[in-house]
Amino acid sequence: MSIAAAPPLRRAHAVPTHLGLRRHRRDVARWALAHGHPVDRDALAVVVAVRSSMGDGTVSLRWTSDDVRSLLWASAGGWCLAHGVRLPSGLTATLATYLRYLSAHRLFSTDSEPMTVLRRTLAEHDGDSSRQASRARHPAGARRRLAPVLPIA
Predict the structure, then answer these.
(1) Which of 3, 16, 48, 70 matches a 20 to 30 Å C-alpha distance to 63?
(2) pTM exceeds 0.85, yes or no
């Protein structure tokens, strides 16, 4: 009995998309690199793809805290699953950079929430995982053990 191996997952930035979306991703990546902000090609491709209307190559510029949560908790994973790609690990950091880009270029729609609200939502999401990771590394977070008792004589 042989088990068929799963096909290798492709990279998110390699999924075919509209030329306008590829240009938008390029502009964001160039800006991020020029300004020292973290950006992952695959994570950026997921963010832009989830927020776009694939038919006409436009990206939604309306952002709320619910949009941020939805993208991080459900939409990104669903898009990756539907397109046979691995969920990128740098999604939260890249989304933060993407929102900074939109803010720096005044591209948010007028009905978007303020950048401070969006940043707080990102910090809440990122804080959960970073707090757990820091606790695991911190000596006080480890399980306390008693020192061994050794006989004197």
Answers:
(1) 16
(2) no
